Amino acid sequence: MTLTKIRTAAASSLAAAGLLIALAACSSPAPTQPPTSAPATTAAASSSASEPCAGVKVIVDSGSLKQAAADTSVCVPADAATPASKVLDEAKVKTVGTTQYPTELVCRVNGVPAADLDIKHKGGTYREECKGMPAAFAYWALWVKPASGDWAYAQEGLATLKVSPGESLELLYTVDGAPAAPAA
Fold it and tell me: Which one-letter DSSP state was computed for residue 64?
């Protein structure tokens, strides 16, 4: 594949990712979700991936980066639909956006990837500066899983997405498409 074709494919992927995130940030919540939310109750409780959660299960998986310091799995008490950003706050998960998109995108989760980390990918190495759109080949993906169902890529960003008791919310770091989805 020529360098021009690689650059064109990369630019197309980045544009598509940007459009998807922009559309998700602008969309309204799904009609099946209540229009208002009740606050989640106080502290998040630690849990393992296999334990049931009466509230919202929050999972952070650094995926290909294998940065265990960022990884977590906790159950956040909730009795009604709650903004994903609030659920993450309750779970003590710290997200950082980009300079251009401070609340619409997630650039770092619990400090990962660090600004000085060389992220190895098919094209070489990359360092995330958190200025604009993250690279189309290395980014935090937001996933939602209903109480009984399969993982689905979130259709909204943290600022507008609401999650309900029994659902799971995962931030998964993907490099070159791997992992492609959260573990079962």
Answer: G
Tracing tokens 């559309």 back to the chain, one arrives at: 23
Handedness of CA 84, 90, 91, 92 (dihedral sign): positive
Write down the domain spans for the chain.
Answer: 3-175
Using alpha carbons only, how large is the chain's radius of gyration in Å? 16
Of 60, 57, 105, 55, residue with least CA distance to 81: 55
The answer on pLDDT for 9 being more than 60 is: no
Contact 119, 175 (CB under 8 A): yes
Mean pLDDT of 24-42: 33
Measure the CA–CA gap between 6 and 48, rounded to whole angstroms. Answer: 41
Distance CA 158, CA 110 (A): 15
Question: How many angstroms separate the CA atoms of 152 and 142, rounded?
Answer: 9
pTM: 0.74
Please state the separation of Cα 32 from the chain's center in Å: 21
What element of type H or E holds 19? helix 3-26
